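Everyone, describe these structure tokens:
***
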Amino acid sequence: ESTSVYSGSVDGSLYLMKNQKEKLRMTMPMTLSFCYMALLWMREPITLSEFLRFVVEGHIPYLNIFQHFPEKMKLCGLDLKIFCVESWPVYEEVFNKMHELAAFLDLPRFPDITESCFLHPDMLCMKYLMEANLPDELHNWTCRVVKKIGIGEVDFLTLTPGNKSTRKVKYDVLAAAVIVVVLKLLFLLDDHYEWLLSEFAEERNKNNTEVCIFYSGGPYFEFKKWYEVVKHSLDVEQKKLDEERAKYLWRCEKPLFYSVKKKSKVLKRRQMVVNLQNQFGKLSGSVQRAEKPNPSSFQFSWSEDNTDGSCFHGHSLKGVLQEKCGLLKAMNPDYWLCTVKLCNEKLCGHLAHYREVEFPQSYHFVLGLFSFLLRIQPSYIHDEVCMIEHKLFNKKLYKKLKYNTVLRK
């Protein structure tokens, strides 16, 4: 039986069959998983969240990818189902498929993630502290937490395909969660203590300015001022993102048709749509889209050269620390746990459940900030926060205060 040139590839029909034994077909999301697996193997300085953000922003061909195909490559018939993507890539799906693919290919242990590697928590924490406009001094505390609970060890970070005894590491989410835990250690984030510290820091900064004292550690870090500055920038960027997604044209300029019979109708309909869009654009006076900016690892730009005091990188943590036995410790003696008991991740899908109304607004804001930076749901970061907390307070949690969610550090 002869096959028409417009019927698609020979195996195109297989993608319509729902066979549970064949979950690893090379779909578009699977292609992203394959690419990320290669990046991880090469230990390239890019995280999964950043990689997917570049995809959504159009720097990496994915949505409407067939318009980049050469003219000789005809995409027809059932093959359209393979390459026609009508949704944004999902972090969790790409991440899980990457691990399944690595195990299916029976790959050996990946190259070690060492302290000098970009994906190490210490390196990523430094990056996210800069992007979140937080004081540089916090990096010392994130490093202490990473070392304390052993999540910076090579065996913990390095991927070994098929090893079900080790937890799959989301490097970017893990680093963001470490920062959240450190902020809770120092500022508590209970909608009360952080504001008291902020008032104290504001008063000290005011007094130092009046008497013209210039101290080497920089001004005291004010949580309230940081919140106001970052929230304003976050709201602006979130609005831009929402508008861009709302205006996105899912149908590309290059029309698709499932059969040669419908080709003429599709082309005429497409030409009609283009004409209407052009006429509407002239009537509304809409401006053509500007050229796409070059991809950047940073979504926010905080410069210490700004005279408006909107950059907090050089600010001091003296207002929240005190020296004991030659070591700097947090003035805050308490800590509240997000959850006392972790869920079974394999059965429940999450280590903990996150409901915004059950947590302080300051905590929710910090989660929302990193959720925007990583383009993931806050619940994923919350899971990692709970995991870190249970590693950090394991002895106190299970030996002393087993049923109390407030711990004395």
Notes: Confidence is low (pLDDT under 50) at residues 1-6, 400-405. Residues 1-107 form one domain. The first strand starts at residue 321 and ends at 324. Strands lie at 321-324, 327-330, 334-336, 406-408.
